[in-house]
Specification:
alpha/beta, TIM Barrel, 15% strand, globular
Length: 275
């Protein structure tokens, strides 16, 4: 089993700090760590300002340089390639230093920018379909067209982050999905709320603007029975030429979330009884 980050929003952090945190994880569990890198704030604007706590140290257009520096620190710490002699940080090392594989870097993105950064840096690319489904196939194509091989990633690799929810019936799946739908709509509207129950979500009136947002949230979610979800996920992966799907399910209660993952596993023959 591999473990790691769904996304470190690098604009909030020092590349050396991130390198050291993930070096420690890799030394403790060699060859099992994934490090996904993101460029977006990853939250609402107020929370982003609180995370930075003062003048922003890295403007968003510095992200490619940050990502490259992070990889340099990781390669140096693993003994693969030291920082160049004329590098301003020559002699500074991400600790602990050990000949372990290092975390596997992934570039995250919801549009063309992330795809281009992944291609130029020779990294695997994970497209956040759950954030932006529009233009996702174009972003993946741009990544493949511009990809520059690297020692760690000699050929393009694509995954898709997908929001999916499975229930015994389509009606129950739709009911359960109302919680996340309203929560995302209110978050995007700048009016965040505690995660609502399905009953609370279905009883809330929506403004015309929120109705429009709701339609976009529903469009980029895959909801239904296990057969319906399997068919749509398989079609999505085929359309993008994706090597894997990263599925996230968010529901109001733990039991329905667990059941969704169980049904999804059954749909793809991955359950214990299906082995």
């Amino acid at each position: 089993m591999r473990i790691g980050s769904g996304g470190v929003m690098l604009t909030h952090y020092s590349p050396l700090k991130v390198a050291e945190q993930f070096r420690m994880l890799d030394v403790l569990t060699p060859g099992r760590i994934d490090l996904g890198l993101g460029r977006a704030p990853g939250t609402d604007q107020m929370t982003a300002r609180a995370l930075q706590a003062g003048p922003q140290p890295f403007p968003i257009d510095a992200f490619p340089s940050q990502a490259f520096l992070l990889r340099q620190f990781l390669d140096d710490a693993a003994g693969r390639e030291p920082l160049p002699e004329d590098h301003p940080y020559r002699g500074i090392h991400a600790m602990p230093r050990a000949p372990t594989p290092g975390p596997e870097l992934w570039m995250l993105g919801s549009g063309i920018h992330g795809a281009v950064y992944a291609a130029e840096l020779g990294l695997p690319f994970s497209h956040a379909h759950f954030i932006s489904s529009d233009g996702s196939e174009d972003a993946v194509k741009e990544y493949r067209d511009r990809f520059k091989p690297s020692p760690a990633c000699p050929a393009p690799r694509v995954s898709l982050g997908v929001a999916a929810l499975v229930a015994e019936t389509a009606e129950e799946a739709e009911r359960l999905s109302a919680s996340r739908n309203l929560w995302v709509v209110r978050l995007l509207s700048g009016r965040p709320i505690p995660f609502p129950s399905p009953e609370e979500a279905l009883s809330q009136p929506l403004s015309p603007q929120e109705e429009k947002l709701l339609a976009s949230v529903v469009k980029r979610s895959i909801v239904g029975t296990k057969d319906q979800v399997r068919e749509r996920l398989s079609a999505l992966a085929e359309a993008h030429g994706a090597d894997e799907l990263v599925v996230v399910t968010i529901t109001y209660d733990f039991a329905s979330r667990l059941r969704s993952y169980e049904l999804l596993a059954e749909a793809f023959g991955l359950s214990a009884t299906g082995q």
